[in-house]
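> @MW can you paste both from yesterday?
MW: sure, first one:
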Amino acid sequence: MEEKNTEIIEEKKPTEQIVIKNEIHEKKSEKILSKKITIKSVICIILVLVMLIGSFYAGYKVAENRFAYKGIDNTVVVDQIKKCGDLIVIEYNYPDFYSFNKGPVPILFNTKFTMYYVANVKATTNLEKTKATVNNIKKDVVVKIPHAKIKEIIIDDDSVKLFDDSGSVFKHRQHEDIIEAKKKAKKKTEKKIPKDEILSKADQQTIKVIKKLLNFMKEDGYEIKVSFIEK
């Protein structure tokens, strides 16, 4: 009996070995399959990230181009400045005296007096002639404007005072004489005023006005350059 039992035990051993081998093979297959799934998952994640980054970059470029078109268009800059038209940048008050003497016969029939007056001198810049160039790469704006000019000289009526030979203030009845005296005083003022100094200050004032008008671009990082149109 003991010999038979031993034989039976020995007959079962090959079967157990096959089962063990099958189990090992299945475990290896599961590991290989698991590795394949992991690799595919990683590849999918990488592809999704690449697509997301690409979409973000494309969207950024579109938004950037739209902003650049709206924010730095040449026409917008020029129109903004041209709204000012013929801009009065300097008002200069020039006080002076003018001696008026009229009449063929000195003492009896002549009209003679000294007139004190204040002339109001206006210097303007015609901003309707403005030109502008916007450089998106360098982020600068070059604006060209004409030089300022003396627009007009007006004798302030409220400032006029008449003096006789003794230096006393008096009211002259001949209105025509006062009108003529004012015309001549205006011509005298045109020759005597410090024209270069006034126009230089007017040009500098115009530059300040332009930069203030375009301050919204300066806040976006643009450099504002203003130069003059030379004849």
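MW: second:
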Amino acid sequence: MNERTLARAVPSSKFGIWRCPSKWRKTRYLRMMKIMDAASVTLSFESPLQPQAAGLIEQLDSYLAQLYPADSNHLLDIAALARDCHFLVARHDGEAVGCGALCVHGRSYAELKRIYVSSVARGSGLGRMIVQQLERRARQAGVASVCLETGIYQREALALFRAQGFVERPPFGGYAPDPMSVFMEKGL
């Protein structure tokens, strides 16, 4: 949400609904304003085995299970994340509100996995911050590109990845073609 959008958000009715392009309610708008304070958000590489991080992964699993059949959910479990990936946690005032992982596969590519922002922080730019931090880690690892697999029903995620310079590509690594999947890549 940019400054121009914020300027158009005005209270409108006796029910406390604020008019803004995305039709957020006042409480959601106020919560987001807290999240948008960059000084109150920290990003750090942590273990996905921590209770708050594991809770985010459980929320993501539940969300994806509602959208896709089990054979189209290409999930990496928590043990594999802890063992094989760099796991990033975004915290607002100490509470985990987002996460993402970078799994490095040699020098040729790294894969983004488990990118998730909790409902309280969606729309705040936190997803972009997570992707950018994981890209920085990929550059430090010296990989040539970053790849990802996401689902066709995750419009916000697809828009985020496209805005960050990712383009569609054929399946990579061990993935098989899947009509429910979108495969993307960004050269570093």
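> thanks! Residues 51-67 form the longest helix (17 residues).
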